[in-house]
């Protein structure tokens, strides 16, 4: 065979017995084909990447009593399209459904005992397998202890998952005292009032709130303070919260995001939206 290499604009001739010489047009076709192959390979890689199973977004919400978890949670739930799971609700649902682990929990609670961590974690594992947790879930009220956090991680690691982020709402204790001890409720309806932020019409300006001047706006019935909303009860609750939560925040330090919740809600919500932005699907 004779090979002749010429300038870039010339043909490359490869003459072989019984075969047509390959000229520049053939090479252009070959290069085009190679480009198409590269394009399809890239498209296939992109498709495979897009269709890999995405890890779920798992968020834990921490906050002391009165920090506004109930007000803030919908921003996370609606923003990420994930359900809010509270330990109490999950336990009650498992008991009502009559699941094996629910029956165990029910028997313990009826006997006056505390449901052990192993059962609570198992109930949570069962709950997060449901279809509404496909994208992830928000845990509210769990874990409460370091041991619970470790058991939760052990459960998640079996599916190659972990807690994505811990959102910790921060409010000074003195501000929480003003929020909580000022709360009064209408027991029948659950309507809530506050001696500073949402006074009932019956409370005269400058008057000290009491059973004699705190009445529901709609029914005129007496309002009441919950036992947990007194100054003494709050001090105990806050001590318990700080004692339990401090080790948890250290444990989850790599994924903790602190939110200043001692601000108006229209400032807090955008801060939460910014925090969850990386997890938007």
Secondary-structure blueprint of this entry?
Layout: E1 2-4, E2 13-15, H1 24-50, E3 57-62, H2 69-80, E4 84-86, H3 87-97, H4 100-110, H5 117-127, E5 136-140, H6 146-157, E6 165-170, H7 173-181, E7 183-185, E8 192-194, H8 231-251, E9 256-260, H9 265-276
Parallel strand pairs: 3-5, 3-6, 4-5, 6-9
Antiparallel strand pairs: 1-2, 7-8
Helix pairs in contact: 2-9, 3-4, 3-5, 4-5, 5-6, 7-8
Q: Can you tag this structure with a few keywords?
A:
single chain; alpha/beta; 5-stranded parallel beta sheet; two-stranded antiparallel sheet; 9 helices; 9 strands; elongated; disordered N terminus
In summary, what is this structure?
The protein is an alpha/beta fold and 281 residues long. The protein has helices at residues 24-50, 69-80, 87-97, 100-110, 117-127, 146-157, 173-181, 231-251, 265-276; strands at residues 2-4, 13-15, 57-62, 84-86, 136-140, 165-170, 183-185, 192-194, 256-260.
Regions with little confidence, pLDDT below 50 for 5+ residues = 1-16, 47-52
Instruction: Return Rg in Å.
Output: 31 Å
Distance between the termini: 60 Å
What oligomeric state do the depicted chains represent?
single chain
Largest sheet: 5 strands, parallel
DSSP summary: helix tally = 9
Description:
With 281 residues, the chain is an alpha/beta fold. A hairpin with a 6-residue loop joins β7 and β8 (192-194). α2 crosses α9, α3 (87-97) crosses α5 (117-127) and α4 (100-110) packs antiparallel against α5 (117-127). A 5-stranded parallel beta sheet has the order 4-5-3-6-9. The model is unreliable at 1-16 and 47-52 (pLDDT under 50). It starts with a strand and ends in a 5-residue tail after the last helix. The chain is built from 9 helices and 9 strands.
């Amino acid at each position: 065979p004779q090979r002749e290499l010429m300038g870039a604009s010339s043909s490359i001739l490869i003459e072989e017995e019984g075969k047509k010489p390959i000229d520049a047009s053939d090479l252009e076709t070959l290069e085009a084909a190679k480009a198409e192959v590269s394009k399809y390979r890239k498209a296939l890689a992109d498709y495979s990447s897009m269709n890999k199973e995405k890890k779920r977004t798992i968020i834990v919400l921490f906050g002391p009593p009165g920090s506004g978890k109930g007000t803030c949670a919908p921003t996370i739930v609606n923003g990420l399209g994930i359900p809010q799971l509270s330990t109490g609700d999950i336990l009650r649902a498992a008991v009502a459904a009559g699941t094996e682990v629910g029956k165990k929990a029910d028997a313990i609670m009826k006997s006056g005992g505390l449901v052990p961590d192993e059962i609570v974690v198992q109930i949570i594992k069962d709950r997060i397998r449901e279809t509404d947790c496909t994208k992830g879930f928000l845990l509210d009220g769990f874990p409460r202890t370091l041991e619970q956090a470790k058991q939760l991680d052990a459960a998640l690691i079996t599916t190659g998952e972990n807690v994505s982020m811990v959102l910790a709402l921060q409010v000074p204790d003195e501000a929480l005292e003003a929020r909580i001890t000022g709360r009064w409720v209408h027991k029948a309806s659950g309507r809530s009032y506050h001696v500073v932020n949402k006074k009932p019409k019956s409370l005269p300006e400058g008057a000290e709130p009491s059973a004699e001047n705190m009445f529901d706006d709609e029914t005129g019935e007496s309002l009441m303070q919950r036992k947990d909303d007194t100054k003494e009860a709050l001090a105990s609750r806050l001590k318990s919260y700080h004692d339990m939560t401090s080790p948890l925040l250290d444990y989850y330090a790599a994924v903790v995001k602190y939110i200043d919740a001692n601000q108006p809600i229209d400032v807090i919500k955008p801060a939460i939206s910014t925090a969850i932005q990386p997890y938007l699907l």
